[in-house]
Amino acid sequence: MTVVESIGPADPGFLEAARRHILRAWRYKPALEDGVAVPSSTVINLSFRLEDV
To answer: Which residue range(s) make up the domain with 16?
Structure first.
């Protein structure tokens, strides 16, 4: 993961906390083209309660 982006207004500290949480908890596999990892993007909608992070 290289970029975490907010679609709506969010405190920068909250976005950083969300990014850290996602990097600890989730595992990713790269997109492949002919067996070679290639850049890709996806949109994932997340909801957080303040006590979650």
So the answer is: 12-52
